[in-house]
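From the pipeline queue, job 12 of 40. The input is one protein chain; the requested action is below.

Action: predict structure.
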Amino acid sequence: MCLPLGVVLNSLKSLFVRETSSVLGLDVSTSSVKLVELSQSRAGDYVLERCASETLEPGWIRDGVVEKFDEVTDAIRRVVRKSGTKTKKAAMALPASAVITKKISLPDGLSEVELEAQVESEARQYIPFAIEDVSLDFQVLGPSLRASGDVDVLIAAARKEKVAERQGLAEAAGLQAVVMDVDSFAGRLAVSRLVDDVVNITEVPLIAVFEVGAYRSALQVLRGDEVLYERDQSFGGAQLTQLIERKYGFSQEESEVRKLSGDLPDDYPQTVLAPFVESLSQEVGRALQFFFSGSTYNRLGHVYMAGGSASLPGLTQAVSRQTACACSVINPFDGMQMGAQVKSKRLLKQAPAYLVATGLALRGFVQ
């Protein structure tokens, strides 16, 4: 993997990104493939050149494992064609469940060789399989707050077969995976570019990011660059599709299309959407209560919603009621210039779903 889990090829120092020019952010999740291509203007501003997505059928990827390799490869080819990109280098991500991470403290001033040896020695204590079977990487985070003269180091390890699976998808689709990250790390990178400009985190220095996927949702509570809490839940936008299917007798495919287009019966907002939004806001509230009950904190500075369902009407208001905290939808493209190929009006509603793909694309610029 690369940067907070980057290039993950064969040896130690392979998870974190190296000297890499701009790359495609390619987010291959359980339900879709999303692509983001960024560039930088002469003034240093990010430019969104292209973005596109392609839906995956249920069961093609299950619990992070690619069950239908050829079908997923074809979907990646389609999203590349749809975007019109000519770039071949891609930054990809493994699901957090496939990666073991551990923060340790080591003496400052170690040479590169000494640091690698210490990391490998420490990693053996935390990895439940043979060290030769994993892609291992680390990143020095900075001076340790716990011990003077030490530095905090983040270790990340994933089974080589998991890394090879993602690399194989890219290669089969005609791309080169030059960065292998962790999806939650990539999301945090995209968030960090925005949050200081959106909320005054010095007053209440905690924010929560709740990303609603198709089948699972993920909560991260952050204090600056520090992750205080993470929690995954089996609740996602696919449940709204199922409610539409049961209520109106549409097929699953038609229900998804109608959900995205808004072409639904007049009673949909009251009888289907509103109860789902309330349930989703309650899931956010429960997840945060788990955090509060196990920490010394009792409030947040802001809650950000991301993912494909983040823009549902009434959701931010419902989450605010549940959490007694300001809530807004995060747009990873805020502050970026729009390239000529981007249909900005259509993109506005879809933007929160591109959080991870945007973070992956940023890996080409953030070293």
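Job complete. The chain has a mean pLDDT of 87.
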